[in-house]
Write a structure and sequence with these properties.
about 325 residues, alpha+beta, Uridine Diphospho-n-acetylenolpyruvylglucosamine Reductase, domain 2, Uridine Diphospho-n-acetylenolpyruvylglucosamine Reductase, domain 3, Uridine Diphospho-n-acetylenolpyruvylglucosamine Reductase, domain 1, 3 domains, 5-stranded antiparallel sheet, 8 helices
Length: about 325
């Protein structure tokens, strides 16, 4: 275990703070050895560091989960169950599945982070969420040191939510995740931007790889690369509101985009709300809102985490004052 380690290389915002302790674990045995320490001290478990904002030095242990490995668990004529270690890079895992002809997660190409974070957040994009292909995950219980299997219903998946962000927060460390993928996939190109991108690519009969490439091109065209501009991807969740709230907004903004959600609720586009409130492309010192995607807050270089958080708070307050909708941060704040 290392002490007083800079976390700048381990968070995609590129915020330069220190962790009191730092440990990278490569296997289950190393994780188990840490459990007595985790039971007594603050900690954060990270893979790719793509969903974190540190506003100050972290007084506990920064645990980098680097459990790797991809293996085929089961195969039938129509489906395959594939398991990946929590430390596997998510995008590389998606590309691996695409190359193998395993369909179901190609729309999730180029999402930053590692496999272990995918069920934590129930990550989703372009009409697909993790829960659509999720089979199970294995997680180490910190209190007992036992490896427990969680099936779909156990995880209580919701919009960017799971039981691991709520009731079981900081009680388990995800070690591996398995997905049930199709050997004869039906491609999901229902999002207009994917169809439009495929048309630009002159693709009439798309393959898994074509859809993946289209998604990659779309994301690259509007989302900054954290290697060049510090960011954590989408900073805010798309708010889910009652139909009456949408109706009130539509009186002044008749073209407000909305999407059906469960129980008669509707989902609004957080990026649209932020843009309409005048924040898109705005810069405040070393931080700002990306000029092409209002959901993305960026570190232009040398920013403190507290500056990013202050910017996010001003956006939250402004959107609420303008639309009566309070945005919720998707990024974990420390």
């Amino acid at each position: 275990m290392l002490e007083n380690v800079s976390l700048r290389p381990y968070n995609t915002f590129g915020i330069d703070v220190n962790a009191r302790y730092f440990k990278e674990c490569l296997n289950l045995e190393e994780l188990r050895e840490l459990l007595p320490f985790l039971r007594q001290n603050a900690f954060v478990v990270s893979g790719g560091g793509s969903n974190l904002l540190f506003t100050k030095d972290f007084p506990g242990l920064f645990l980098k989960n680097n459990l790797r490995g991809i293996r085929e668990i089961e195969r039938s004529n129509r489906e395959v169950i594939i398991e990946a270690g929590a430390g596997e890079n998510w995008h590389e895992f998606v590309l691996y599945c695409v190359e193998k002809g395993f369909g179901g997660i190609e729309n999730l190409s180029l999402i930053p982070g590692c496999v272990g974070a995918s069920p934590m957040q129930n990550i989703g994009a372009y009409g697909v969420e993790i829960k659509d292909t999720f089979e199970y995950l294995d997680a180490l219980e910190i209190a007992t040191g036992e490896l427990k299997r969680f099936n779909l219903d156990d995880c209580a998946f919701g919009y960017r939510e799971s039981v691991f962000k709520r009731a079981l927060k900081n009680q388990y460390i995800i070690c591996s995740v398995a997905f049930r993928l199709s050997l004869h996939p039906t491609l999901n190109t229902s999002y207009g931007v994917i169809e439009a991108e495929l048309a630009k690519m002159n693709v009439l009969e798309p393959t898994l790889k074509d859809v993946s490439n289209a998604v990659i091109r779309i994301r690259q065209s509007k989302l900054p690369d954290p290697q060049h501009l510090g960011n954590a991807g989408s900073f805010f969740k798309n708010p889910v509101v009652e139909a009456e709230v949408l109706a009130n907004i539509a009186t002044n903004y008749p073209k407000v985009p909305s999407y059906p959600a469960s129980d008669g609720m509707v989902k609004l586009a957080a990026g649209w709300l932020i843009e309409q409130a005048g924040w898109k492309g705005k810069k405040m010192g070393a931080v700002g809102v990306h000029e092409l995607q209002a959901l993305v807050l960026v570190n232009f270089g040398g920013a403190r985490g507290s500056e990013v958080f202050e910017l996010s708070q001003r956006i939250v307050d402004d959107v609420e004052a303008t639309f009566g909708v309070r945005l919720e941060r998707e990024v974990n704040i420390f």
